[in-house]
Amino acid sequence: MADSEKIIPLNTEWNRKTNMLPETGKLQLQLIHNGTAYFSWTDLERGPLYMQCEENFFNKNFKLPGKYESPPKEEALKKLEGVKKHKLLKYPFDVVAK
Question: Are 54 and 36 in contact (CB under 8 A)?
Fold first, then answer.
């Protein structure tokens, strides 16, 4: 897996409510660890936002172009440490569409 993977938002009610659509920005998966997905959303108007949600919820609202392979434990923990340096929003509740 590359440092981050492109995510494709599905046409779901939550993605429409939060305006998280392919034409409004870019999604990148950072990590899936212990049942939580960590990802970033670069909104064309607001810049980058960092988010987390339960893995099951993530799978219902987003699609990866390929198969996700978890990094080795030490690498995952290091990556998680880097992700948690950002203010993490809880998707979808902390993300409000303009």
Answer: yes
- Residue 16: what residue type? R
Q: Strands 5-9 and 62-63: what pairing?
A: antiparallel
SS3 for the chain, per residue? CCCCEEEEECCCHHHHHCCCCHHHEEEEEEEEECCEEEEEEEECCCEEEEEEEEHHHHHHHEECCCCCCCCCHHHHHHHHHHHCCCCEEECCCCCCCC
Q: Give the pLDDT confidence of 18-66 residue by residue, as tens digits.
A: 888 888 888 999 999 999 999 999 887 778 889 999 999 999 999 998 8
Phi then psi dihedrals of residue 58, to 5 deg: -55, -50
Q: Which of 70, 66, 54 is nearest to 14 (CA)?
A: 54
Q: Can you give the pTM of this predicted structure? A: 0.85
Place of tokens 């939060």: 18
Q: What percent of the chain has pLDDT over 70?
A: 93
